[in-house]
Structures are given as structure tokens and as C-alpha cells.
């Protein structure tokens, strides 16, 4: 896979994980705890700065209640505001 394609895929995963996590009302720390990974892993996935292992991708999808395909489909990657999501 070319570097451009790899980065685009990571950005799709990042945007989708962030969007679904927020829809679920979870913080990055909440999701990390449920998945059993360090919170930095979720942060880095959402920043598209690390390659996601298949195991982590499946665990993220399971905890977010979506199919793996929903996390890898094309999505817009946008800069986000830092901080916790609004409480519901």
C-alpha cells in the first residue's frame, strides 16, 4: 500500500472512531478502558498517527457497537477541539 493510501485509511478510521465514540457519549479514556488499551492508543488512533492492529480495530468496533467496515469506510477527517465531550 502506498503511503498516501495508508494515511488516507488511517484518517478514515480516525474520523469514524471519533464520530461513533462521541455519539456513544464516551470519552477517549472510557473507550480505552472498555477495549483494554492505554488511553494514548485511542488518542493516537483518533489522530491517525499509528497503524491500528486488526485486534484493536475489532475491539474498538465491538465496544462502539458497529461493524469493522463502519470504521474503515471513507469519512472526512477534521481537526477537533480538545477537551471532554459535552455531558449529556
Describe this structure in words.
With 88 residues, the protein is mostly helical. It has one domain: Orthogonal Bundle (434 Repressor (Amino-terminal Domain)), CATH 1.10.260.40. The protein contains five helices and no strands. It has helices at 3-23, 28-35, 39-47, 54-64, 68-72. The chain is globular, with a radius of gyration of 12 Å. The model has no long low-confidence stretch (mean pLDDT 91).
Kindly provide the radius of gyration, computed on alpha-carbon positions and rounded to a whole number of angstroms.
Answer: 12 Å
The average pLDDT is: 91
> What is the string of helix and strand elements?
HHHHH
Overall morphology: globular
- H/I helix tally: 5
Largest sheet: none
What is the percentage of strand-forming residues?
A: under 5%
CATH H-level superfamily: lambda repressor-like DNA-binding domains
The class by helix and strand makeup works out as: mainly alpha
The number of domains: 1
Low-confidence stretches: none
